Amino acid sequence: MSVCETVYQEVLQLQGQIRTKQKALERCLDTCTDNCDKCKLIEQEINKLTEQLGNTEKKQATCALLPSLLGSWTLNANGFVLSVIINIGDIVDIGGLFLQGFVAPSGGADSIVGNYNTTQPQQMRFSRTFYVGTLDNPLSITQQYTGFQFANPTGTAPLTFAGTFIHSDEHGNSSGPFGWFMIKQ
């Protein structure tokens, strides 16, 4: 079961626990004639469960975004056009999603690992790692991307991100920042 499936189950479970406690509180208040500490304890339990439910519902809202991020994208990285497939995703915390994929047609030779942060203004960060050189002397290259989701006021534009990236090799040589944008296909 994925983390998102677990989150959906937690929401249902917490909603059920709250309903049960609310019924218990009603019964307690019906039978309580004076300063009833038992009823106060039930109220505190309801408040705690309600807070947990609020946090879990935030996770649920984050999970709802996941399908829109998975799939095929066209990445323009400083003029170099690449096809990116984001094929794995899951929730990592209340406001973020873990993403993983690869650059096609390499089939995984160029890996993409990153996250989408819903607490920042729809910020996406990811790293692309690939190798250049020869089989005897490969050189690992990492590109660190940071970008933000475009607004879509008309609701007709494809999901789009844009930002900057830096380019570095395993020896610590780096260059950039460079511009990039990525459009959902």
Structure notes:
With 185 residues, the protein is α+β, with helices and mostly antiparallel strands. The protein has 2 domains: 3-65; 70-184, Lipocalin (Beta Barrel), CATH 2.40.128. 34% of the residues lie in helices and 44% in strands. It is built from 2 helices and 8 strands; from the N terminus they run ααββββββββ. An 8-stranded antiparallel β-barrel has the order 1-2-3-4-5-6-7-8. α1 (3-31) runs antiparallel to α2 (37-69). The mean pLDDT is 84.
Summary, kept brief:
By secondary structure, this protein is an alpha+beta fold. The protein has helices at residues 3-31, 37-69; strands at 71-77, 80-93, 96-104, 111-117, 123-133, 138-149, 160-169, 174-184. Helix 1 packs antiparallel against helix 2 (37-69).
The CATH architecture category of the largest domain equals Beta Barrel
- Helix and strand element order: HHEEEEEEEE
User: pLDDT average, as an integer?
Assistant: 84
Q: Radius of gyration in whole Å, from Cα? A: 24 Å
In the residues, how many domains can be counted? Answer: 2
| Main CATH class of the largest domain | Mainly Beta
| Percent of residues in beta strands | 35-45%
Largest sheet: 8 strands, antiparallel, barrel
Distance between the termini: 28 Å
Give the class from helix and strand content and strand pairing: alpha+beta
